[in-house]
Design goal:
The complex is a heterodimer of chains A (538) and B (674). With 538 residues, chain A is α+β, with helices and mostly antiparallel strands. Chain A has two domains: 218 residues, no CATH class; 177 residues, no CATH class. The radius of gyration of chain A is 23 Å and the shape is globular. In chain B, strands 19-14-13-24-25-36-35-32 form an eight-stranded mixed β-sheet, sandwiched between helices. In chain B, strands 3-2-1-4-11-12 form a six-stranded mixed β-sheet, with helices on both faces. Chain B has a four-stranded parallel β-sheet with strand order 6-5-9-10, sandwiched between helices. In chain B, a hairpin with a 2-residue loop joins strand 33 and strand 34. Among the domains of chain B are: 142 residues, Rossmann fold; 108 residues, Dna Ligase, domain 1 (2-Layer Sandwich). Chain B is 30% helix and 28% strand. The N terminus of chain B is likely disordered. In chain B, helix 1 runs parallel beside helix 7. Classes of the chains: A alpha+beta (538), B alpha+beta (674). Chains A and B meet through helix 1, helix 5, helix 6, helix 7 and helix 9 of A and helix 3, helix 7, strand 21 and helix 12 of B.
Chain lengths: 538, 674
């Protein structure tokens, strides 16, 4: 450590910057308009130092973990900054992850900054917008190219020296389906940004520049020590694991993800060289998403009170092949890379660590976010609507107990939208929300059970499903059995009024009529340990 | 100078008792013709009422009215010892409690776990019925199925049943029918439209299930306590229970609405601290209660604030509660280094057993030990009159974490800095994060350790002064004694007020009318018919938002006024408003209030027989410091000083001064000199 910052000062500074990130999150959540942000809390807020290193992140969504710093790097091309500037972006190849995740980054200036001074840091917020345009409501279509998924916003200024750049906002809002809701959510994000800027500037003034910089640097060094201490306890060596996606939504072949994990001293290297090339489909993950998935697993191995900052990630290195499904390049689509491939990358890393730490690691969890997006014209009001929901499944059985039923796993931890909130807001009716019996893999500790959710449409709508583990299963470990695959069904009526059921593939866009029901049965988690004979899975 | 409070007793009851049953001690505050008396006795956790009854017999007190702060509800939830309970719900939603909102409590747990639901799946039943979001019956309630389900429930032998149907808060018909049928079978019934008529089925069910689980236990406890009070105290006093939101409730109502008492004890503390601050002329107060394992802070901007998003053991409890923020920081909090080398304090605590090293039964370094090392807790003091402090033992404990700091004293100061920063974070959450400027508030410190940290904490968040009430060790019990008798009623509405709407809002007024009538009748049933005032409020949001702000209103307001009240509240809380957006009334709320005791509450404590003296105490450096007993302080005193009393120690750091107020409170003010 370059400068000695005492252990108490470190804990206090960590608490101060973390509470700023959390306060930004509280502001964003409480002022946003869309249920996706307010009810599901699908957003993250973070604070950075002047070099763009992450000082603190409000713990909401793991998939945003490693990806927020990329946004700060990406906006560097807009420098020099003025106080009051605020950048917006969603370009997955320039600081974003997938298009619905709209990120704002703003520079923070010292209270006593003179003209021409550089920022003392940055604050950023990322929120999943329920619609950002493109070929399907909800902007998670079964696409081939990025351009089909919505409006692409490269890093641009939304505010210049405190003045809104009206033309930029007008252009964006003209390209989305629910412009009023977007405007409200953007306002909430802007409010969070402005608050974060003020708080950081206040903290900087309290500390004084020299001490602020030293303490921030010490905080990052401290994060690095935490990871190194944990890695040093692991065995050295190299392990490989392979898992795969069911398909890419266009062709039925599985999409393999292959990892070579190396641990030496207190460093870890993730080598994904042999993973599948990118596809003309939306299952491609951009590199920041892949890194986030790996960071997430490392973070799970660290002690519970570990703070979240960029130092944690310093001992972690990657080999990510270009133009691959784990490090996509233009022009392919990427929406599902963020929500589905990220889960499979976690499963792959999870599987590798299962070989190192069989006594600690649970089996695979359901491995999908079961994305449902839908939209149309609300027959009650004549207004357009767009709805996005993810559903949990069974978590993996663990050495010390069964997996949780019906829960969000790994890269997501949003909240579901209450049935009553859905029906108040959208032309939808939720007919069932129950635990899917016997879907968890059998084992000494069974996998968690999935979920059954039946949603009825009260008017014509377009529905897109992006789901996984429909043909494959969440694996068990130590002799535990895999969980059941998920299943998507359209319950509809034939032309002559007869009720009928149609099995839907894992990834599809489908038009539904008033009265139709989409039934989603989500996968169970894998079991841990061999089940005793004849024991019931429940 | 603070304004002089009215000293005219306005009580209509001559003999009143406030009693707070805590985990370790049961605190009594008794008021009769002669004034206020206080006492503490060990709690009897196996039978909490025993300490109350035997205490009263011992003191010879004969209250006409007893206000009780009870941990029965909380403990019953935490230890899962409530009544076996069944659930009846809408077809398709039997698993709502287990599914929750699908989130896992700990984002980065390798193996995430959740508490099992209060009602297991085998006791959860569905009936065919459905009401739409506009209250239209889509599927009539299948009564035959309902009777079959009730047969099955009876066969399981449970005492209590929770009923929660979708959209019952808009149209309660089906729930009422089911509730009547269940009551006819002799079951204790909690119906969701009655317990919490608001949207979001999981949160409404969670609250309703908790009530169903608690009601039989609470009713039995209160019935038995009332019977024993009648036997033991000839006066057969009227019994009330403190609710989570700082108002009190008759025992009979508390039994049926048990879930409204889960924060009973802490609510007494906030109510007591706020009342003390108001009496001393500081109605803008932040209450700060620091005990052995945790600290509770609450912001009172001229009134008690309420929240409706309480979590107990990860279970949402959405009935109103004091807006309390709890942090794992107390006198017993343990100092340790994490693997990255940062000093952490808490949340693990040495508690009362084994306690801090200075108590002589452990070797762990705690916040209390740090105070002992720095000379701020004095060895000659007797904590609560029972424990003496072992300075050498405290030094050895702190020395175990002193290496990076260069000295034992520096390590002790570091521990105090870290625990203060943990508490300061909680204070910021309830003040700056909600748009309140701490510089306009007074910190009211109580609990065993609160007065030790009051000035440091005030410095950390920019509060200019702190108040130590006269008897900080029994503040919860005195809060109960003075608590107003209140009944809350609320109703989910989902009513939109368009940007151009003007004039009366009949739907809201109708709801207010009905709710006020309901709340008044409930108070009347409990025997409080006269001198009742009703307050109105509504949970409002911009159309499309899904979080609401509770805004105080009057009945009969015009649409323009309701809208502008919300714009103002939104701007105050979040820094902006959207005057061109429609405002939605999500929930209408009323509170009927009958004033509690409002007279003189000053207490005289027996003076300790120690003369003021000067010793060296370590602050920023070692400084000569005045040490004196609280009763010996008769005029302003500049810090550094240490003021001792039976149940706590007050530190006055350099740059602060202490001043006794006529009520017996102590006012600490930052002077900046020192």
């Amino acid at each position: 450590m370059a400068v000695n910052v005492d252990p108490a000062r470190l804990a206090i500074f960590d608490s101060l910057v973390s509470s700023i990130a959390e306060e930004m999150g509280a502001t964003l959540r409480h002022t946003a308009l869309s249920p996706n942000i307010k009810e599901r809390a699908d957003f993250s807020c973070a604070v950075f130092d002047r070099e763009g290193q992450l000082l603190a992140q409000a713990a909401h969504i793991p998939v945003h973990l490693g990806a927020m710093p990329e946004s700060v790097s990406a906006v560097a091309l807009l420098a020099p900054w003025q106080p009051g500037d605020l950048a917006i972006l969603n370009d997955p190849f320039l600081g974003g992850t997938h298009l619905p995740d709209v990120t704002m980054v703003s520079p923070v200036f010292a209270h006593d900054a003179a003209d021409g001074d550089d920022p003392i840091g940055y604050v950023a917020s990322r929120a999943h917008q329920a619609d950002i345009g493109g070929m399907a409501p909800g902007s998670m279509p079964v696409a081939r190219e990025l351009i089909q998924e919505g409006i692409v916003i490269p890093p641009i200024r939304l505010f210049r020296a405190g003045e809104l750049v009206e033309e930029a906002l007008t252009l964006i809002l003209r390209n989305v389906r629910t412009p009023d809701e977007r405007r409200g959510d953007f306002n909430a994000q802007i409010a969070a940004q402005r608050l974060g800027e003020r708080r950081i500037a206040d903290l900087h003034a309290d500390y004084g520049d020299v001490r602020y910089v030293q303490t921030a640097a010490a905080l990052l060094d401290y994060g690095e020590r935490l990871t190194r201490a944990q890695l040093a306890k692991l065995p050295f060596g190299t392990w490989t694991f392979e898992d795969s996606l069911d398909d890419d939504g266009h062709t039925p072949e599985p999409v393999p993800i292959r990892l070579r994990l190396s641990i030496a001293e207190d460093l870890v290297h993730f080598d994904f060289s042999d993973s599948a090339p990118q596809r003309a489909a939306s299952i491609n993950a951009v590199a920041p998403v892949t890194r986030s998935a790996c960071y997430y697993v490392i973070r799970c191995l660290l002690p519970p009170e570990t703070p979240m900052n960029g130092g944690l990630f310093r001992p972690i290195t990657f080999t990510l092949p270009e133009h691959s499904v784990v490090a996509a390049s233009p022009p392919v689509a990427v929406a599902a890379g963020n929500v589905e491939t990220s889960q499979r990358i976690v499963d792959t890393v999870w599987g590798a660590f299962n070989q190192l730490l069989p006594e600690r690691m649970p089996a695979a969890s359901s491995g999908t976010m079961n994305n449902l997006t839908a939209g149309g014209i609300d027959p009650r009001s004549g207004q357009p609507w767009a709805y996005y929901e993810t559903s949990g499944g069974g978590l993996g059985g663990a050495p010390d107990g069964p997996g949780l039923d019906a829960a969000y796993s790994h890269m997501t931890n949003t909240l579901n939208t209450p049935a009553e909130a859905i029906e108040l807001a959208y032309p939808l009716r939720v007919l069932e929300n129950s635990i899917r019996p016997r879907s968890g893999g059998r084992g000494q500790q069974r996998g968690g059970h999935g979920l059954v959710r039946r949603t009825q449409f009260l008017g014509p709508a377009q529905v897109t499903l992006i789901t996984e583990r429909r043909t494959q299963q969440a694996w068990g470990v130590q002799g535990g059995e895999p969980g059941q695959s998920g299943r998507n069904t359209l319950e509809t009526t034939t032309a002559n009024g007869k009720p009928t059921r149609r099995r839907l593939p894992g990834k599809i866009t489908v038009d539904v009529e008033a009265g139709d029901i989409i039934r989603i049965e989500t996968p169970g988690g894998g079991g841990w340990g061999a089940a005793r004979r004849r024991s019931s899975p429940r | 100078m603070p304004s002089q409070p009215a000293r005219e007793p306005t009580s209509r009851v001559a003999r009143l008792l406030g009693v707070d049953v805590g985990g370790t001690f049961t605190d009594f505050v008794y008021l009769n013709e002669d004034g206020v008396q206080i006492a503490k006795r060990p709690s009897t956790p196996d039978d909490p009422g025993r300490a109350i009854v035997s205490g009263l017999a011992e003191f010879g007190w004969t209250p006409e009215e007893v206000v009780h702060g009870s941990t029965v509800a909380t403990n019953t939830l935490l230890t899962r010892t409530g009544a076996p309970t069944a659930l009846i719900t809408t077809k398709g939603f039997r698993d709502t409690l287990a599914i929750g909102r699908q989130a896992r409590p700990d984002l980065y747990a390798l193996h995430p776990e959740r508490h099992p639901p209060l009602i297991p799946q085998r006791l959860s039943f569905e009936v065919d019925e459905r009401v739409s979001a506009d209250g239209e019956v889509l599927t009539p309630l299948d009564r035959r199925e309902l009777e079959v389900v009730l047969d099955q429930i009876e066969a399981t032998g449970v005492d209590s049943v929770a009923i929660c149907f979708l959209f019952s808060f808009i149209n309660p018909e089906h729930e009422q029918t089911a509730a009547d049928a269940a009551r006819a079978r002799g079951l204790s019934v909690s119906a969701s439209h009655d317990i919490l008529p608001q949207h979001r089925e999981f949160e409404r069910l969670s609250t309703t299930a908790a009530n169903a689980y608690l009601a039989p236990v609470m009713t039995q406890y209160l019935d038995s306590l009332a019977a024993r009070l009648e036997d033991g105290v000839a006066s057969s006093p009227r019994l009330r229970v403190m609710q989570s939101n700082g108002g009190s409730l008759s025992a009979a109502s508390a039994g049926r609405n048990a879930v409204r008492t889960v924060l009973s004890g802490p609510a007494g503390g906030v109510a007591g601290a706020f009342a003390a601050a108001e009496t001393d002329g500081f109605p803008q107060a932040i209450t700060f209660d620091m005990g052995g394992t945790s600290a509770d802070v609450a912001l009172c901007p001229g009134r008690l604030l309420e929240r409706t998003d309480l979590l107990v053991d990860d279970m949402p409890i959405r009935t109103p509660a004091v807006d309390l923020h709890t942090v794992g920081a107390g006198g017993g909090s343990i100092a340790w280094f994490d693997p990255g080398g940062a000093l952490r304090v808490g949340p693990q605590s040495a508690g009362a057993l084994p306690g801090p090293a200075a108590y002589g039964r452990s070797t762990v370094p705690t916040v209390t030990d740090a105070h002992v090392v720095l000379g701020r807790l004095r060895p000659e003091q007797q904590l609560g009159g029972t424990v003496s402090l072992d300075v050498e033992r405290a030094r050895r404990a702190i020395a175990s974490v002193a290496e990076p700091f260069g000295s034992v004293e520096a390590a002790a100061q570091a521990i105090i800095d870290v625990v203060n920063s943990n508490m300061a974070r909680a204070l910021r959450v309830i003040s700056v994060e909600r748009g309140y400027d701490p510089a306009r508030f007074t910190l009211v410190a109580f609990g065993g350790a609160g007065p030790l940290h009051a000035c440091d904490l005030a410095d950390a968040v920019g509060v200019p002064q702190a108040l130590i009430p006269p008897a900080p060790g029994v503040l919860s019990a005195s809060g109960m004694l003075i608590a107003d008798i209140t009944r809350d009623a609320e109703q989910g509405l989902h009513l939109s007020i368009a940007t151009d709407a003007a004039g009366a809002v009949p739907v809201l007024d109708g709801a207010f009318d009905a709710l006020a009538g309901h709340a008044r009748r409930a108070l009347a049933e409990d025997g409080y018919e006269a001198d009742v005032t009703v307050e109105f409020a509504a949970d409002l949001r911009y159309q499309g938002q899904s979080h609401e702000l509770t805004v105080a209103l009057d009945a009969g307001l015009h649409a323009e006024v309701v809208r502008s009240a919300f714009h103002e509240a939104h701007a105050e809380r979040f820094g902006f408003s959207s005057p061109d957006a429609a405002v939605e009334v999500v929930t209408a709320r009323t509170k009927a209030r009958h004033a509690g005791f409002q007279g003189d509450m000053s207490v005289s404590q027996a003076a300790e027989q120690t003369a003021p003296r000067t010793i060296d105490v370590r602050w920023d450096r070692s400084r000569p410091t005045t040490v004196l007993a609280r009763d010996a302080l008769t005029s302003r005193l500049a810090g550094p000083a240490i003021i001792t009393q039976l149940d706590t120690t007050v530190t006055v750091p350099p740059g602060w001064r202490a001043e006794p107020l006529p009520t017996g409170s102590l006012l600490l003010t930052r002077t900046g000199e020192g």
